[in-house]
Amino acid sequence: MKVLMFGWEFPPKIYGGLAVATYGITNGLSHIPGVETTLCMPRPCGEEEKFLKIVGMNEVPVVWRDPDYNWLKGRLQSISAEDYYNFRNHIYADFSYRHVNDIGAMEFAGGYPKNLHEEINNFSIIAGVVARSQEFDIIHAHDWLTFPAGVHAKQVSGKPLVIHVHATDFDRSRGNVNPTVYGVEKNGMDNADCIMCVSELTRQTVINHYHQDPAKCVAMHNAVYPLSDEILALPETKKPGEKVVTFMGRITMQKGPEYFVEAAAKVLQRTKNIRFCMAGSGDMLDEMIDLATARGITDRFHFPGFMRGRQVYECYKASDVFVMPSVSEPFGIAPLEAMQCGCPCIISHQSGCGEILDKVIKTDYWDIDAMADAMYALCTNDGLYRYLREEGIKEVAAITWDKVGQRIYDCYKRTLGW
Known about the structure:
Elements: E1 2-6, H1 17-30, E2 36-41, E3 53-56, H2 69-76, H3 81-94, H4 116-133, E4 138-142, H5 143-157, E5 161-165, H6 169-173, H7 179-191, E6 194-197, H8 200-209, E7 217-219, H9 229-232, E8 243-248, H10 257-267, E9 274-279, H11 285-294, E10 301-305, H12 310-317, E11 321-324, H13 334-340, E12 345-348, E13 361-363, H14 368-380, H15 382-397, H16 401-416
């Protein structure tokens, strides 16, 4: 089976959970005999792992100075003369040369530039070129950024489209939905033959807010990979007599950072031997610093900034408790990573990962009293701490990307009627 996949992020460049999930899914699929995946992304850095074929959309020629059908036919293999002239005229009409590099391909900034919607549109147009030049059985598009590319590839090839909903704009905006983004998301869903959602929570959002047929929507939970020997060897740098409670993620309204600060203030009314760490960056960072100042807890509060790679695991191993108080979290891989490091977790009931995790404490994101009680209990009750630490390690060890890859492969086969 050959899979044509469209993704926006991939390690080693990681902007968030989307890169981690795309890596996990493709790696899981790579272990299934007979599955070949081609991942198209805007601008690879060249340091990606080589277990799959990666196509940089910034390297696909779409504009040429001296149009020549034979040259193009050699590049695109199967395009007809009529398609060539129609495509050439379409490209000349839609693109200005300021976007074009020396090989006649479109430039992409990668990541999330200010002209994001323009890059999404350009990505989708080039997807049509790729779909004409590749052999594949099924299309898989990750998140709203690549839905237009998936739809275009389906229109060009007639092959079935699977879209993967990692989040919706209802999650990112607390319900203050951007109509443009909603339109892109809904068009992708309307054209999809199968919709994979990272949780049942997200599946219900897709069914109820995007009016999709429940029969074509499936919950496809994320997972984690076993820790490397390097990470396992990292020391636990906890200080005797002092506990550390950590929030790690984008400091933005979806993640509920203000509830973490408010709960921390309540804990510090009971004891002073706990430090709080808010690791990450985002549009609410300054607001959270001001809130900690207003609550008089800055002497026990730390803002180390954005962390990546080894730093993330060093932080988990230095923490006694990890908290994810998300207002709306489609899945949330961070608690699974923290549990791997032996760090007990508190998550909100509004988090999709809670559907597959039992060895955690769950509270409503808005219930700062319950959240504070849970923090305090884990920092003062050694028996509860040891139980969630030991059982959490066991639970998360069984949640693997290889199992997810097999489930996705089975879903592909059902979609194809194999």
